[in-house]
């Protein structure tokens, strides 16, 4: 077998492996589950609870802003903006932590494949 044939065979095997990996995608739900895999999954659970509570606070402050007298609208408007900013920060942290866990998992998977290919 020539070196060209060996390269073509290796590339075909890699293409099959990539196709198999692409079919394993779980979608958004599977991606978000990777955030709970780390050692600080309790913080992730707490942040999801915080996001839900902040959503309720946003609706409450928004309602109060709409029905408040003109003198009170500034007060409720500031609380509405603060609650919104807190929710944005919480959701950003959730997605950054999920992305970090997902990337770390992919790196470990790649390391395992490299070790297996070295042994073969």
From TrEMBL:
| Superkingdom of the source species | Bacteria
Keyword presence, Membrane = yes
The record's section on Pfam families has: DUF6768 (PF20556)
**What sections of the protein cross the membrane?**
48-68, 74-95
Q: Which UniProt keywords apply?
A: Membrane, Transmembrane, Transmembrane helix
Under what name is this protein listed? Uncharacterized protein
- Source species of the chain: Alkalimonas amylolytica
